[in-house]
Amino acid sequence: MKYDFDTIIPRRGTNSYKWDTPEEENVLPMWVADMDFRTAPAIIDALQKRVEHGIFGYTKVPETYYDAVVRWFEDRHRWRIDPRWIIYTSGVVPALSAIIKALTVPGDKVIVQTPAYNCFYSSIRNDGCELSANNLIYRDGRLCRPLSKP
Fold this sequence. Notes:
- By secondary structure, the protein is an alpha+beta fold.
- It is built from 5 helices and 4 strands, in the order ααααβαβββ.
- It has helices at residues 17-20, 41-53, 63-77, 92-103, 118-126, and strands at 109-114, 130-135, 137-139, 142-144.
- Strands 1-2 form a two-stranded parallel ribbon. The chain has a two-stranded antiparallel ribbon with strand order 3-4.
- Helix 4 runs parallel beside helix 5 (118-126).
- The chain is globular.
- The N and C termini lie far apart (48 Å).
């Protein structure tokens, strides 16, 4: 599938968290995973079809979702996972919070490879845990993971 990643679409003035939040015009917001290219036509078509239905109640996750995840792992990693292992979530931050709540108790330390998305830090603290930063090291012009703390 060929796709146009070169067309610039102005986002300022559209309530874009990424582009309308910085107060300075010359800020390059590289802190949020928000893409600046147009959404793929197949996704736009699927959304328009859903909008035309006119009802926006709670929906269940279709089996095709789980099939796609299983197939991706198998194609990418040659590992066939059990679809029962997959838990749908509305995003990375809610998933992180659910994992922290399931695997820790308040006061536990949670290691984060830094730098990281700022919401990771607040999720850990909001769940009553302490952040333990494992900072990347700048060595020979590259950011590297430390194998152990000195």
